[in-house]
Amino acid sequence: MWEETEQLKRQLPLLEYLRGRNWSLRPTGSRQEFVGLCPLHAETRPSFYVNASKNLFFCHGCGRGGDLIRFAQLYFDLPFHQAVALLRQELGLVPPSESAVLEAAARFYQSQLHRYPEALAYLHQRGLKDPEVIHRLGIGYAAGGNLRRHLTSLGFSPQLLCQVGLVDRQGRDTFYRRLVFPCRDENHIQNLYGRSTGPAPAHRFLARPKGGLYAWETVSVFPTVILVEGLFDLAVLWQAGFSNATCAWGAHLTSGQFAQLSDRLNRQVFLVFDSDANQAGQQSAQVLAQRLRRAGLTARLVELPPGHDPNSYFAAGATAADFAHCLEQAQKSSQP
């Protein structure tokens, strides 16, 4: 959004904007400076200066100054985001999209991650330590209390933040005290996933579609794919070098995700679902394996030690060689 506001100021220079409002001015000093009566307060001697090259104003009479957006705030008595919306409307620009606010929120969360030791400690506890993988996944942290202020300072309206679900009506952060993963589909954020670091319910998504299989635009090139349930499962596999891993945000694929997985007939899919005590993960894997085989793919069920999912398996000390051995065992025992 910062880039959008800077573009707005380039498209509508302050001097041009003021001339459009019939502000009387005359050059003074350099060719880039102009002076006239201040539009912000009553005066008889010109004290309002505009620097055209810097796109800034300052009034020596009332002591106020700033850029185009600040002028609109003062002149129309508007908060920042409403001033931006007004200027965009004058230029005939469309309002910021939900996709834009999700991107801005994800960037903000990512910038906060390394400021909070408890967030990094939680990642390390879950076995995720590689800074490159953490950055690649875009993992961030919602400390709470500052998202609304940050996004409105970029020009996003509080109404849009509530509409998307990033904050509630009181302005409280939906992902308070959660690690936040952006859920991308074809390089566009479709949703955000928050994993609680405290006593709150573990999982949280925004009330919107989650998109397709994670990072499918890069994983789809592999003839062999590893499918897991969750993002922490995927994260530790990527960290261990298994870049052909993707996840479906759970054990049940949407029709779109199934279509992605079965888009080439010679693909081999390793299903590595949770080894739950109630057998729910294994049962879901078996049902999906049958569907994939009927679609012409080779599906293999991977067994981890009882009670483990890929994340807990690596967090408990398993190595890439240990996991590769599990894949080899699945290849030997599973029937295509």
What does this protein structure show overall?
Helices cover 41% and strands 17% of the residues. It is an alpha+beta fold and 336 residues long. The strands form three sheets. The protein has a five-stranded antiparallel sheet with strand order 1-2-3-4-5, covered by helices on one side. Helix 3 packs across helix 4. It is elongated and about 90 Å long.
Residue runs with pLDDT of under 50 for 5 or more positions: none
Largest sheet: 5 strands, antiparallel
| DSSP strand content | 15-25%
Coarse shape: elongated
The span between the termini is 49 Å
Radius of gyration: 27 Å
Order of helices and strands: HHEEEEEHHHHHEHHEEEHEHEHEHEHH
Summarize the structure.
The protein is built from 15 helices and 13 strands. With 336 residues, it is of the alpha+beta class.
Q: Key terms for this structure?
A:
single chain; 336 residues; alpha+beta; DNA Primase, Chain A; DNA primase DNAg catalytic core, N-terminal domain; Dna Topoisomerase Vi A Subunit, Chain: A, domain 2; 3 domains; five-stranded antiparallel sheet; four-stranded antiparallel sheet; 15 helices
Task: Set out the fold topology.
Layout: H1 2-11, H2 14-19, E1 26-27, E2 33-36, E3 48-51, E4 56-59, E5 65-66, H3 68-76, H4 80-91, H5 98-112, H6 117-125, H7 131-137, E6 140-142, H8 147-153, H9 158-164, E7 178-185, E8 188-196, E9 203-205, H10 216-219, E10 224-228, H11 231-239, E11 245-247, H12 255-261, E12 268-272, H13 280-294, E13 298-301, H14 310-315, H15 320-333
Parallel strand pairs: 10-11, 10-12, 12-13
Antiparallel strand pairs: 1-2, 2-3, 3-4, 4-5, 6-7, 7-8, 8-9
Helix pairs in contact: 3-4
